[in-house]
Amino acid sequence: MAKRVAVIGSGVSGLTSIKCCLDEGLQPTCFERSDDIGGLWRFREKVEEGRASIYQSVFTNSSKEMSCFSDFPMPEHFPNFLHNTRFLEYLKLYANRFDLLKYIRFKTTVTSVRKCQDFSTTGQWIVVTESDGKQESTMFDAVMVCMGHHIESFIPEQSFPGIEKFKGQYFHSREYKSPEEFQGKTVVVIGMGNSASDIAVDLCQIAKRVFISTRGGSWVMSRVYDDGYPWDTVFHTRFSNLIRSILPWPLLKLVYEQKMNQWFNHENYGLVPQNRALMKEPVFNDDLPSRILCGSVMVKPIVKEFTETAAIFEDGTMEENVDVVIFATGYSFSFPFLEQSVIKVENNEAPLYKQVFPPTLEKPTLAVIGLIQPLGPIMPNAELQARWATRVFKGLTELPSESAMMTDIVKRKEKRIKCQPRDDAMEGWALVQGKQGKWKARAPFLPSDVEAPWKTRKGGTDAETSTLPTGVFHSPVPAGEDVAAPEGSIAPPRESLPSEAPDGAPPAPVPSEAPVVLLSRFASVLQNQETRASNDRPSHILCGGMVVEPNVKEFTGTSAILEDGTVEEKVDIAIFTTGHHSSLTLLEETTTPGLTV
Ligand SMILES: Cc1cc2nc3c(=O)[nH]c(=O)nc-3n(C[C@H](O)[C@H](O)[C@H](O)COP(=O)(O)OP(=O)(O)OC[C@H]3O[C@@H](n4cnc5c(N)ncnc54)[C@H](O)[C@@H]3O)c2cc1C
Ligand SMILES: NC(=O)c1ccc[n+]([C@@H]2O[C@H](COP(=O)([O-])OP(=O)(O)OC[C@H]3O[C@@H](n4cnc5c(N)ncnc54)[C@H](OP(=O)(O)O)[C@@H]3O)[C@@H](O)[C@H]2O)c1
C-alpha cells in the first residue's frame, strides 16, 4: 500500500509537497484551515486567524524566473515581478495543471500531531483535525508541515517603554492592508525590513507625515539590477554563487557592501546596517530612496519612548501628534500542534537538519517544508525540500546519524550569528540524491552533462535551477499547456527582458482591476494602486504595471492603433504630455487621426 502522508497547509510549500508525494507514488491528504489554496499569497481585506496576511500592494521581490517550480515555468506573458494576485494565479494554474485540488480538505485545521504508540517501529502519526466543530483522528505514515512562518506577529513591546500609554492606534504590519484610512495622519513605522519599507512608501502618498524608525538600518536594493535585469537572475548566477562560496568572509563582506552601495551610498541616507558584519537580507524597494530624498518618508533612529501622543527617538528628537504606530518588526513562529519533544522552538530557531528534519526522531517521518529564509525565492527551495523529504519517507534516501545532523545544526546556527542570518539555498541535488557532500554529488554530474550547466550557467543555485535533466530533476511542463516537455529538456530561458508576450497574446497584462498604463511616445506614466510601490520606470516595466509601446498611429472609438500595427483595445484615457508651448496648437498638429479632442 502507498504510504499515507498528511500535508498541513496548501500554500506554496503545501502544493509542491502534494505534487512531490504524487511523483513518488505516495498518498497525500492535505489539510487547509482556510477555504482556498495560496496561503500568504491570497490577499483578503480582513486578517484571518492562523493564516499569513499581506497588504494590497505586495509584489514578489524574487523574479518569476527564479520563483517558479522547476516543472512549471510561469506563463511567458507574466511580468518579471508579480503582484500578489498574479502569483496566486500562478499557484492556481499549478494546482490545476497537476490536479492537486482533489487532495485538499479545506476548512480543516490540524490541531494535534502525535506519535503513534509504536512509533519507534512504524514511524506513524495520529493527526487530529477540526472541521465545522467536529474532530477527527487519522493515522498517517508521514507528515509534512507546510504551515508557513509569517502567522504570529512579533511586537517587542518591552523594547518600547510608554507604548501602553500611547493614545493613538498601534498595530503590527500583519494588520495593514492599504493606505486609504491613514489620509492626513502622522504615522511612525517601526522596523526597516521589506514590510516596513513597503508600508512607509505606500502611506507617504496619502498620510500627512511618515517616519520610518530603524534600530539597525538595512541595505536597500532595487529589483532592477545590472543592465536592467531582475536582481536575482544576476545575483544568483552559478558563477557568482561559486565565487561567494570560495571567497574568505572578510573579502566577501567587502564585495557585498560595495554591491549594496552601488545604487546609492547608504551612509548618506542614514540607512547603513549597524552590524555590517552580518549579511542581512536586503530590502527591495525601488521607491524608498527617492521618497527619502523628497522628504515624504523621514528616517529616524529607534524610538526610545512613547508618550500619550508623541514618539521620542534615540537621538533626542521628538515627534508630536503621532496618530498611528505600525510595528513592522517581523514574525515569530511555533508549531502549536506538535509536542516540544518533536520540535522545540527557541529564540525563533527550530533545531532542524537542513531546516527540514527533526534530528532526534527514531524514524524520519516528519518534515517541515518552507521554513527557510534564503537570500532569494522560497519556492524552489520548498520544492527541493519536499522532493528530498518524500524520497526519505519512501526509503530511497537516508539521513545521516543523529550526531552528524546535530553537528550540522550547530554549524548553521553559528553561521547565522557570526555572519549570515539568512539561510543558504538548499543544496539540491546532493540531498535529493542522498549525498551529503556538495562536491561529491556534483563531480559525476559535471562531465556527464555539459549541456545543462552550460545552458543554465546564469540560472542560480541548485534550488533555483533544479530543472536539470539529471534524472533527479523533473522536466518542465509549459504553463497552461497539457503536453509535458520532452524527457531531458531544459527549462525555458530564465531571462526574458522584459517579459515578451507570445505572438498574438496581450503584452504583460496586469490583473484586471488595475489600470494598464501604456507608455507611447506621447503618453505619460500614471501610477496605479498596484505599482505605486515601484514608481521608477524600469521597475514599473519589470513589474508589468507599465508597457512601453511605439507611437499611436490612429485612435478608433475605443482603441489605439500603434505604429507597429498592434492594437490596444478598450483605452479609457489618453493623456498628452506633449510639452507646454502653445499646447493646443501642438496637440492639433500632432493629433492622431481619429482623436476627438
Ligand atoms: C509580505 C510578504 C512578502 C513575501 N514575498 C516573497 C517573495 O517575493 N518571494 C519569496 O520567495 N518569498 C516571499 N515571502 C515569503 C513567503 O513566506 C513565501 O513566499 C511563501 O508564501 C511560503 O509559503 P508556505 O506555503 O510555506 O506558507 P504560507 O503561504 O503561509 O501557507 C501556509 C498555509 O498553511 C495553512 N495552515 C496553517 N496552519 C494550519 C493548520 N494548523 N491546519 C491547516 N492549515 C494550516 C494556512 O492557512 C496557509 O494556507 C514573503 C512573505 C511576506 C510576509
Ligand atoms: N515581496 C516583498 O516585497 C516583501 C514584502 C514584505 C515582506 N517580505 C518578506 O517577508 C519576511 C518578513 O519581512 P518583515 O519586514 O515583515 O520582517 P523582518 O524582515 O523580520 O524585519 C523586521 C524589522 O523589524 C526590526 N525589529 C525587530 N525587532 C525589533 C526591536 N525589538 N526593536 C526595533 N526594531 C526591531 C528589525 O530590525 P533589525 O534588522 O535591526 O533586526 C527589522 O528591521 C521577509 O522574508 C521579507 O523578505 C517580502
Question: What does this 3D model show about the protein?
Answer:
The chain is of the alpha/beta class. Among the domains are: 4-151 and 333-419, FAD/NAD(P)-binding domain (3-Layer(bba) Sandwich); 154-222 and 264-330, FAD/NAD(P)-binding domain, CATH 3.50.50; 225-262, no CATH class. The protein has 15 helices and 25 strands. The strands form eight sheets. A five-stranded parallel β-sheet has the order 3-2-1-7-20, with helices on one face. Strands 9-18-10-11-14 form a five-stranded parallel β-sheet, with helices on one face. A three-stranded antiparallel β-sheet has the order 4-5-6, with no helix packed on it. The radius of gyration is 25 Å and the shape is globular. The N and C termini lie far apart (73 Å). Mean pLDDT is 81; it is low at 435-535. Flavin-adenine dinucleotide binds at residues 8-14, 31-34, 39-41, 50-52, 54, 58, 60-62, 67, 109-110, 146-148, 150, 195, 337, 370, 377-379. GO terms for molecular function: flavin adenine dinucleotide binding; hypotaurine monooxygenase activity; N,N-dimethylaniline monooxygenase activity; NADP binding; trimethylamine monooxygenase activity. Keywords: Endoplasmic reticulum, FAD, Flavoprotein, Membrane, Monooxygenase, NADP, Oxidoreductase, Transmembrane, Transmembrane helix. Its EC number is 1.-.-.-. This is Flavin-containing monooxygenase.
